[in-house]
Amino acid sequence: MRPSAERSSQLRWRQVLLSFLLSLFRGALPDQIRYSVPEELAKNSVVGNLAKDLGLSVRDLPARKLRVSAEKEYFTVNPESGDLLVSDRIDREQICGMKPLCILDFDTVAENPLNIFRVAVTVQDINDNIPLFKQRKIDLKIGESTKPGRTFPLDPALDLDAGSNSLQRYHLSDNEYFDLAEKQAPDGRKYPELILKHSLDREEQNFHQLVLTAVDGGDPPQSGTTQIQIQVIDANDNPPVFSQDVYRVSLQEGVPRGFSVLRVTATDQDEGVNAEVTYSFHNVDEQVEQFFTLDKRTGEITTKNDFDFEIASSYTLGIEAKDPGELAAHCSIQVEILDENDCAPEVIVTSVFTPLPEDSPPGTVIALIKTRDRDSGENGDVYCRVLGKTEFLLKSYSKDYYKLVTDRALDREEIPEYNVTILATDRGKPPLSSSTTITLHITDVNDNAELQFYLVVALALISVLFLLAVILAVALRLRSSSSPASWSCFQPGLSSKPGPGVLPNYSEGTLPYSYNLCVASQSAKTEFNFLNVTPEVTPPQDLLCEDACWVPSTNHGDGDGPLASDTILKVSFNLINLFAL
């Protein structure tokens, strides 16, 4: 395990050195790389050279694998040049709506070593929308007794562009009796109002036609128009009058349907049937009519649908009161929606780096995580943590952005796969939470080389011992199955069979000896002195292991005997020496 420990130590030192160098490198970089592009750029348009702005060498790009990590990828990185390219349609109105500032934030990831960089792209509005009125014609009835200075609200124009390209002003065609004023609603939209400058005379002119123009701030500017048709009616009629020009109401986000918001009242100085007033919505968009209802006789406004602060935090309701003579009065109601903690936070995994080598040092980035809560204030303040006691932890590197890193060493032999659960909780009362699980696969590295060596040695020893045991068993088997005489040559003593032979007498100083004698054919006449052994002592066959061909011949001169052949005679005999005590 020594090389493995040294390898782990080297990896830790590299990680420390890398962190130090990155801290120096990041100190030279801004917190975010910022770009600015117009909306509706063509696909593959170049935003900027991201690699150069990050200080990365183009030669290193194939190994660094620079890429974009985002929930929705509007951009991509050219792997060869490092250019940041447009990969999808960028419609500012669809992405950011009426927000004055539209910014796309995302991460860029570089590997080997792993670095995470924040990028912010500001989407500039182009003047691709013109101001439009809901109605091409506006009808008004004004009594000739109406005093100058009276205002008449008009339908506003809608321009989806933002900033300087949005609706900037209204223009009224030249006339003698009317002027134009502008008012701004809490949502930022501008509303035109018609102002009576001089008293009207029905006998002189009972009909007036004007043109209202809405102009944006584009270059060149774009505009939209609508016609205003004004009918002057008899002075005997009196228009209704509201008790207030503007009403303000606050509603909790979770109020039930049918909840009474407000009751507006308008009075008419006429008598009888001419004093009856009916109420209706005036200059409101479809969204208002989806959430509110108005009783045309009583003027009571009730909720029609469930509110969602995250979709709309305020509404402007225009109310018109009209008598049978078609004379009308107008007021507006500003409804503010109060946020409640009704949205659980979301956990969005933008990147996962798996499989993960088991020798990854502590602090290795595994995943990039983003949280989102559509609530506001503390209800939308989210914090994240890893459930349970694991080898991983979360580190925040930007608002609502986290990275999942290793906290200690991993061991694939112990745990080959991890299911890491990330829990996000807001600070609402009561708090809401949600979670997601990331599955991480651990890859093996050769960190058990010494252990494998010892296992091989142990296996070899066991194999040798087993082989020896088999050989011994075979030998014992052969001995038990062979004749006893064939094994007697390997035993000490005169004979392998009990008999009346000469037994060794150790008390008398007799010792048994066993000799092997080799005699060549040329030495057949050499004299040998053998111990005279009588048959009563030990038969020759017993001395020579019952092999009759090895019994020595008494014919010393005859060349026909066994000693005359070109063979080597092997003789085994026992010699007894007597030692004097």
From TrEMBL:
Residues 69-133, 134-242, 243-347, 356-453 form the Cadherin domain. It is found in: Membrane. GO terms for biological process: homophilic cell adhesion via plasma membrane adhesion molecules. Residues 1-30 form the signal peptide. One of its GO terms (cellular component) is plasma membrane. The chain crosses the membrane at residues 453-476. Gene3D superfamilies: Cadherins. It holds the Pfam family Cadherin_C_2. GO terms for molecular function: calcium ion binding. Keywords: Calcium, Cell adhesion, Glycoprotein, Membrane, Repeat, Signal, Transmembrane, Transmembrane helix. SUPFAM superfamilies: Cadherin-like (SSF49313). Potential calcium-dependent cell-adhesion protein. May be involved in the establishment and maintenance of specific neuronal connections in the brain. Its main location: membrane. It is a single-pass membrane protein. This is Protocadherin gamma-B2-like.
